[in-house]
Q: What sequence folds into this?
């Protein structure tokens, strides 16, 4: 297998892992049998998974450059570990209350912003490595 293909697959695994764990964080505390809960939770579930869904598209754009894929893999791992680490800290170490639930939309927004900036840098790397 070509190294670029290995890096691309690794990014897809990180994206799938991030989306799955984000979904599990949301479902773990929910009232799954309540239709009202699903109506309220669905936008938050989509928002929580959005950074990793966007990562699928980003990886496809960067498929032609090994340096860009390596950079994006490092950035996606950092986003996954930092974001889910913050959520785990709030849930298991800090005392959970109503305000601590704000960590979910904030972390997802910061992950999305970080991945977008990393994607821009990866595009620059791809362009400079092809020139």
A:
């Amino acid at each position: 297998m070509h190294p670029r293909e290995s890096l691309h697959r690794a990014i897809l695994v990180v994206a799938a892992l991030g989306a799955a764990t984000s979904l599990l964080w949301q479902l773990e505390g929910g009232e799954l049998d309540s239709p009202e809960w699903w109506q309220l939770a669905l936008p938050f579930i989509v928002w929580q998974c959005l950074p990793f869904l966007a990562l699928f598209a980003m990886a496809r754009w960067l498929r032609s450059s090994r340096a860009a894929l390596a950079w994006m893999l490092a950035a996606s791992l950092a986003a996954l570990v930092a974001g889910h680490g913050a959520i785990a800290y709030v849930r298991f170490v800090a005392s959970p209350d109503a305000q601590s639930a704000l960590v979910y939309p904030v972390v997802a927004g910061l992950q999305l912003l970080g991945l977008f900036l990393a994607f821009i840098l990866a595009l620059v790397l791809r362009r400079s490595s092809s020139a």
The CA atoms of residues 33 and 50 lie 24 Å apart.
